[in-house]
Prior knowledge:
The structure is a homodimer. Chain A is an all-alpha fold. The first copy, chain A, contains eleven helices and no strands. The first copy, chain A, binds a DNA duplex through helix 1 and helix 3.
Amino acid sequence: MSESExxxxxxxxxxxxxxxxxxxxxxxxxxxxxxxxxxxxxxVQLALEHGYDTITVEMICHASMVSQRTFFNxxxxxxxxxxxxxxxxxxxxxxxxxxxxTGSIVGDLVGTIAAAIVDQVPDTELLRLxxxxxxxxxxxxxxxxxxxxxxEGNLLQVVLDRFRAHGxxxxxxxxxxxxxxxxxxxxxxxxxxxxxxxxxxxxxxxxRELVATAVDLINRVTGETPD
Amino acid sequence: MSESExxxxxxxxxxxxxxxxxxxxxxxxxxxxxxxxxxxxxxVQLALEHGYDTITVEMICHASMVSQRTFFNxxxxxxxxxxxxxxxxxxxxxxxxxxxxTGSIVGDLVGTIAAAIVDQVPDTELLRLxxxxxxxxxxxxxxxxxxxxxxEGNLLQVVLDRFRAHGxxxxxxxxxxxxxxxxxxxxxxxxxxxxxxxxxxxxxxxxRELVATAVDLINRVTGETPD
DNA sequence: CGTGAGCTTGCAGTCACTGCATTATTCACC
DNA sequence: GGTGAATAATGCAGTGACTGCAAGCTCACG
Lengths: 227, 227
């Protein structure tokens, strides 16, 4: 009863853009988004300049002119402000494509997840700075990777759907659930590879290239077994 | 390496009763080991009874009759005392066996790592209690899994050795290093599966059975490609 | 023995994070 | 436009993990 926040949780917020707000949302909402962004930028900025470990929440608050309490209302933790929003699930279309796919199942899974993450971000500048911070702070990079595990449950369902779509049942294969779990686990491993390349060793190339490379490697290593 | 004493109370006088078979250590060293164990047991005990999140380091210190400072001298963090020692690298023989192996490379890798962990401690009572604590504390279980990453660097070397032993060179395959990285990443994923089964859903069976199951699944999913 | 190395401890302090009560804003409705 | 009900921002006081430092204590060894 301490890991999860009690009161307010960092809320999703896709409407926050760099400049003017596209959606004519209420003033309240707009202000909120602005504050959030101010804090985020100040934090990333400071972390880049002085190192994540040496800066304090108080510094961030001072730089962004909010109270410490407000900081924690927005981002539950000091990590939270650097890591940003959690990696998203693939959208409807991508999910369907995966389910009906016929390539190496692990490779397909990694490609699908990675594509979802890559497609997500509009704010490239902030993203780059974030990435730099993670490069200098291995502990944070590890946390970021661990986040993929959070959507593991959903992925499991999708993998099972693919199995069924391919005519496999739990009657024919009693441990089909375990097999799906293993696919997800291996997929997480593949993502681990990709994110390590992306965060730690500054991969010089587009994210798409990175994904292609990773999927290619997985297929080579796992032998491209359809499923 | 070898701790098998049953000193369940703080450093009381254990004058002539010490069946120290292997360690012909000095008094100092023995005392140290005893203290360590006392703290460990108290901590695990308390965590089991009240939950990891609700107990404090002070409670542990009180129960094991050491100062807080001493606690942190032994285990740098509150987590540390529950997680115990980090997972070890496979020994010489196991490593060689892996290098010369011809099975699915990811499966072989997971089998080798898992075997090393399983062989590590002759199923102590403490181990079982630890496992229970992790079952009740997902955040800790996650940390434990993340620990495998710590030996990633060494594993990478071993995988490369296997490649070379099989006649593969970086000249024939320019991105051989990346391929090895991917193998390690997928292997970590496989371990993830096994540890999840072991810690979170109390797998009822011997650790060896679990390993066999996991390797079997990996081979099925990845198509048993030799390498 | 006596002395130095290694352990343990108390203490003071930093920092992340939380609950609660209060004040300031914004919204919804009249 | 004014007003009361949300909602957000803040101050404050506290908890708990963790660290550096400066003793004091214990064991090892000549």
